[in-house]
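To illustrate this point, we now present one chain and its tokenised fold:
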Amino acid sequence: MSKEQNKEYVAVGGQALMEGIMMRGPQGTAVSYRLPNGRILTEMKEFVSVRKKYKPLNLPLVRGVVSFVESMFFGYKLLMESAEKTSLDFEEEASESKLDRWLSDHFGPKMLNVIGVVAMVLGVGLAFLLFMWLPSFLFDLLRKAAHSELTTIRPVFEGLIRIIVFIAYMYIVSRTKEIHRVFMYHGAEHKTIYCFERGWDLTVENVRKSVRFHPRCGTSFIFVTIILSILISSIVALIFPQLTVNRGVWLLTKLLILPLIMGVGFEFIQLAGKYQNTCTRILSAPGLLMQRITTAEPDDAIIECGIAVMQAALTGEIPPEQTQEVIDAETAAQDAPVEDETPSEEAEDSAAPQEPQA
């Protein structure tokens, strides 16, 4: 990107959802879904970062941790919402399992929120197990087998295990139909942002020929944090080798330095997205390669969804035709006749037990 382009640099970021995309732009946060009936529903979402409310939270290094936590909670909320809005026959009683009915009876309309919280807790627990505990456990096995402390190589060994686990996990989930669709929307999000940042008109043709890899992606952020964790953990291990002896103490140490790693990683990702040079290209390369798994080429229908959400995020306005479609749908639902659930006399007669025929 040239210096002239950097003067007018506008940061636009997003997230792939279930049959949809969220995009943050200069005029707000927008979400576009591809509904089961084929139409695109675009909505503006209220989101004000605490970094704008409290200036200390927007300081370098600190803002990276705050941004990560905000993105995790807000993004997960939208992900659950997209799953609800784009699913067919979401609440059909005929397909409800006993567990679904129990959850509905006990939690009512809050059921989805409860499921979301439980799923998030399980997800965080799984991430800790795979990326924190498992590498340390495998290193302890290696240390026992070698009959040596091997303290100097512990950070590097654990970092390599995290990279292997991350790549394997993402590749396995990408083979499922549902996640592959999400990765197609992820690709559309990147291609639309690329198209915008190049100053091209937001058309299906221009987005289709755009690149689906972007240095500011969350995938790149994860790779950068893993690499930084290796470097920073190695420094800590050299200065305080006694911290690496006990697995529990070492896990606690890694948790304590995690905010620093995330803060540095966030600053790098922001610079890599804004400035393109040899250094940022080299450090961004692993994350860009990984996006070959976490993104997929979208079809034109998905690209249309990316264009719709980008235009809303840039202008703060929802296309008039989409607004009218929503109004018409709500009006039709309100005007629809309510069926009388009181059984008629004929229905009661037909439901009554019949005398057996000879």
The first strand starts at residue 13 and ends at 17. The CA atoms of residues 142 and 148 lie 9 Å apart.
